[in-house]
Design goal:
The protein has 7 helices and 7 strands; from the N terminus they run E-H-E-H-E-H-H-E-H-E-H-E-E-H. It is an alpha/beta fold. The protein has a single domain, classed as 3-Layer(aba) Sandwich (Rossmann fold). It has a 7-stranded mixed sheet with strand order 3-2-1-4-5-6-7, with helices on one face. The relative contact order is 0.16.
Length: 187
C-alpha cells in the first residue's frame, strides 16, 4: 500500500477530490496524512470526515528544525502532494524525499510562477498579460518556487471577456479532472 501525505493551506478542494478518487481506485493507495500550516484550514474538516490523521506545522520546526522529516518517515510516506500549500518546502524535506514531492500550479509554468503567484494572483496576471491560454502544471518540487521538472501540463483557452473568477473555475475543473490521475501514474 502506497502512503500519500497531502499538504494544504486552505479549503482543501483538491485534497477532497484526491481522497475521493483513491477511495474508489483499484490501485493500493492510502491518503494517510493531511498536513497544514493553517489552524482554520477547511482541509482539516475534510481530514476529520474521512478519518485521516493530521499534522499541524510549526513554522520554526518546519524551516529551522527538522522539517518534520522523522514524522513523515515514521508514517512510511511514499509521496508528498502539495495541493494549495503556500509555504516553500525546505531543503531538508526535499533531500529526504527526492522526486517524491509534487505540486500543482494554476498556470502554465514557467510563466506566472514564483513567490506570491498563487490563486487569484496568478489568474489576474494571466488576464492582465492578455494570454490566449492558461492551464495547470504538475511538477516535482525543488528548492525554488515552481521550478521543478514538469510532469504534466494541460491548457485551456482564456477568452477575451475572461474574469478572474471564470478563469479560476476553468483551472479548478482541470485540477479536479487530472491531478489524481497524474498522482496515480507516479505511484
Amino acid at each position: 500500500m502506497k502512503q500519500v501525505a497531502i499538504f494544504a493551506s486552505g479549503n482543501g478542494s483538491n485534497a477532497a477530490k484526491i481522497i475521493e478518487y483513491f477511495s474508489s481506485s483499484e490501485k493500493n493507495v492510502c491518503i494517510s496524512l493531511i498536513v497544514t500550516n493553517n489552524t482554520t484550514a477547511g482541509v482539516l474538516q475534510i481530514a476529520a470526515t474521512h478519518n485521516i490523521a493530521t499534522l499541524m506545522l510549526n513554522k520554526e520546526i518546519f524551516f529551522q528544525g527538522d522539517a518534520y522529516v522523522a514524522e513523515l518517515q515514521k508514517m512510511k510516506i511514499d509521496l508528498i502532494v502539495l495541493a494549495g500549500f503556500l509555504w516553500k518546502i525546505p531543503s531538508k524535506l526535499i533531500d529526504a524525499f527526492p522526486n517524491k514531492i509534487i505540486n500543482i500550479h494554476p498556470a502554465l509554468l514557467p510563466k506566472f510562477g514564483g513567490k506570491g503567484m498563487y490563486g487569484k494572483f496568478v489568474h489576474e496576471a494571466v488576464i492582465a498579460n492578455k494570454e490566449k491560454e492558461s492551464g495547470i502544471t504538475i511538477h516535482f518540487v525543488n528548492e525554488k518556487y515552481d521550478d521543478g521538472k514538469i510532469i504534466f501540463q494541460i491548457k485551456c483557452p482564456v477568452d477575451a471577456n475572461e474574469t478572474i473568477e471564470s478563469l479560476a473555475q476553468k483551472i479548478h475543473e482541470l485540477e479536479y479532472k487530472y491531478f489524481s490521475k497524474v498522482i496515480e501514474g507516479i505511484l
